[in-house]
From TrEMBL:
The keyword Nucleus applies. SMART domains: WD40. Gene3D superfamilies: YVTN repeat-like/Quinoprotein amine dehydrogenase. It comes from Hydnum rufescens UP504. Its main location: nucleus. Residues 150-169, 382-442 are annotated as: Disordered. One of its GO terms (cellular component) is Set1C/COMPASS complex. This is WD40 repeat-like protein.
Length: 442
């Protein structure tokens, strides 16, 4: 389906009000890559998968004993990874509703993100300030810590013979949309870029002076990056991958109230940046135009604090979570325009008497109809090939001809043992609680 027909933000239709309220006890929520489902991590450790068409729960996943801190979808929505304060990360298979893997750490997990091309690879940020890359291919789990240190920035407790551990804490991490690099924010305002295959640091960008970077979000194209820090500023950057450079674009903030941000997100086509305000008695979402950096609109919801926010990947819709766990789905109020169904259709304010044309109801020649039908049947339609690569990855020329070999080597590395998430726009089978997977109706 043509995404332009889905009425995205680019057509100046910004959500105006809450259209649906999902009654949950959510701490965080994320749309899946197509926007059909919402995964909600709850305060009680459960994870619920909501179907927005029916506003019902498809899956209730019990796997944690404490609050879920993040949820992450695989590229086609078959797998979901959750992190929790109970020191565990769980990879779920929505085909059966069972755990694929449970990984335990030595401290609470602040967030986890699945690789955009292979759900067997993920990056996890721990409350201790460590960033761990999990490689779960070939039926084993390999952990690799991303290390960063400067000559004058190491902890005093490191022994002479032991590895130097950086005093800088890593607070948030995201894969680049092509899956070859990891962008990591730190507690000192640095943005670090690591190579996924070698785990070596490629680039360091000073974003803010001693301000903790709290959120990192790429737009759909992967060329623009937004980040928020506790200095109450949302910064946007233009990312170039060959060579790797970052050009600052805008600094977005609430200049009057100096609001802190509990979440940021890009609109589906990257023309708007959404910021969820951390106010004590208001559910407020700020919408900025990315091209100009100006505040376009402020959305005001129920008078309840906002905890998390995320944009629909295609439509002009937003989901937000309040501190009580309710999920609000924001949408645009549209009026039906019947004139769009036919070029010569005319909308009338009042009834008028219609005068038919002389040849309006003449029967068309059967030979003409038969020839027209035959012409339509002769058109070749490709119904066999499947494009399993998302548009956001397929259309982004990240690399120049000089580093094609690098890209090929990296892609070959993380696809050596691919996952089973191969069905585009995956829809999980629906079964009752008492049914076994063999009795499922697809």
């Amino acid at each position: 389906m043509n995404i332009e027909l889905l009425n995205p933000f680019g057509q100046q239709d910004i959500p105006e009000s809450v259209s649906t309220t999902l009654e949950d006890w959510a701490a965080c929520a994320r749309f899946n890559p197509t926007g059909r489902f919402i995964a909600a991590g709850r305060f009680d450790g459960w994870t619920t998968i909501w179907d927005l068409d029916t506003q019902g729960v498809l899956r209730s996943l019990e796997g944690h004993s404490k609050t879920v801190t993040s949820v992450s979808w695989s590229r086609n929505s078959r797998y979901v990874m959750t992190s929790s304060r109970d020191w565990n990360c769980v990879l779920w298979d929505l085909e059966t509703g069972d755990r694929v893997k449970t990984i335990r750490f030595d401290c609470p997990a602040s967030g986890a993100s699945l690789h955009p091309r292979n759900s067997k690879i993920s990056v996890v940020v721990l409350a201790s300030g460590q960033c761990i890359v999990l490689d779960m291919r070939w039926n084993r789990t390999e952990r690799s810590e991303l290390m960063y240190s400067e000559a004058n920035e190491t902890s005093s407790w490191d022994g002479d013979d032991g590895p130097s551990r950086p005093s800088t804490s890593m607070t948030v991490a995201r894969f680049s949309p092509d899956g070859t690099r990891i962008f990591v924010g730190t507690s000192t305002g640095d943005l670090l870029v690591f190579d996924l295959r070698t785990k070596q640091i490629l680039h360091r960008e000073k974003v803010a002076n001693n301000a903790i970077i709290r959120h990192l979000e790429f737009d759909r194209s992967g060329r623009r990056l937004a980040m928020s820090s506790n200095d109450r500023i949302v910064r946007t950057y233009e990312v170039s991958y060959s060579p790797l450079t970052m050009e600052p674009l805008h600094k977005l903030q609430d200049k009057i109230g100096r609001t802190q941000w509990n979440g940021i997100s890009w609109s589906g086509n990257g023309e708007y940046i959404i910021g969820g305000a951390a106010l004590k008695a208001a559910h407020t979402i700020y919408v900025w135009d990315h091209e100009t950096g100006t505040l376009d609109k402020i959305l005001e919801g129920p008078r309840e604090p906002l905890q998390d926010v995320h944009c629909h990947p295609a439509r002009s819709s937003i989901c937000s979570v309040n501190t009580a766990g309710l999920i609000y789905v924001w949408a645009t109020v549209t009026t039906e325009k019947w004139g769009a169904f036919a070029a010569n259709f005319e909308e009338l304010d009042e009834n008028v008497e219609y005068e038919e044309r002389e040849d309006e109801f003449d029967i068309e020649d059967e030979e003409v109809l038969k020839k027209r039908k035959q012409d339509r049947e002769d058109i070749d339609v490709d119904v066999t090939s499947v494009d399993d690569e998302p548009e956001s990855i397929r259309n982004v020329p990240y690399y120049s001809s000089n580093d094609t070999s690098d890209r090929t080597a990296s892609a070959r590395w993380f696809l050596e043992d691919p996952d089973d998430d191969t069905v585009p726009d995956y829809f999980p089978p629906v079964f009752m609680e008492d049914e076994s997977p063999d009795d499922v109706m697809y």
